[in-house]
Specification:
Elements: E1 2-5, E2 16-19, H1 22-35, H2 44-53, E3 55-56
Length: 63
């Protein structure tokens, strides 16, 4: 299972998501950034920032 914790990108945010595939984690994270943090435009560098922060659940380091 792959894990993304929004607080690694947006300090103080407690939201997180898990999925089997990185693509699904990214999709959920982008939806979260739009709906909760008011991001209207998600640039490629933001997607890359999300991807670098996805890790295997139970791991202490980013993948």
């Amino acid at each position: 299972m792959r894990l993304f914790e929004c607080g690694t990108l947006v300090p103080g945010c407690q939201w997180h998501t898990r999925a089997n595939e990185d693509a699904e984690v990214v999709r959920r994270a982008v939806d979260h950034l739009r709906s909760v943090h008011g991001e209207e435009i998600i640039r490629e560098n933001m997607v890359e920032n999300i991807k670098t922060r996805i890790r295997d659940e139970g791991s202490t380091e980013a993948a």
